[in-house]
Amino acid sequence: MIYFRYRILVNNEKGMPAWMILNLSASYKIQKNIQLNFAMENLLDTQYRVFASGMNGAGRNFIFSVRVDF
Questions:
Q1: 17, 28 in Cβ contact below 8 A?
Q2: DSSP string, 14-59
Q3: What is the tens place of the pLDDT at every residue in 20-61?
Q4: 3-state class of 45 per DSSP?
Q5: Distance in angstroms (rounded) separating the CA atoms of residues 20 and 41
Q6: How many other CB atoms are found less than 10 A from the CB of residue 57?
Q7: Where in the chain are the domains?
Q8: Is the terminal CB of the chain with fewer CB neighbours within 10 Å at N or C?
Q9: Residue 70 DSSP one-character state
């Protein structure tokens, strides 16, 4: 079974410009105890700064993982 999930984060604090990032993730269960995971964060490669953080957020990220349950 394949699962897809998306997440849109939006910020519009007082005095800060608004920003939006798009994250996508999917997982696929190969066997009862093995699952493959894939995620793309900040898909549009938006430059943004979390309120009062002093540094820009991460650029586009790709994440691959394998989960094995014993």
A1: no
A2: TTS--EEEEEEEEEEEEETTEEEEEEEESTT----B-TT-SSBPP-
A3: 888 889 999 999 999 999 999 888 888 887 777 778 888 899
A4: coil
A5: 12
A6: 16
A7: 2-51+58-68
A8: C
A9: -
Q: Tokens 């849109």 appear where?
A: 8
pLDDT at 1 over 60: no
pTM over 0.70: no
Distances from the Cα of 29 to the Cα of 2, 7, 10, 55, 70, angstroms: 7, 21, 31, 37, 15
Tokens of 34: 């093995």
Which residue type is seen at 54?
G
Residue 21, Cβ density class (10 Å: 0-12 exposed, 13-18 middle, ≥19 buried)? buried
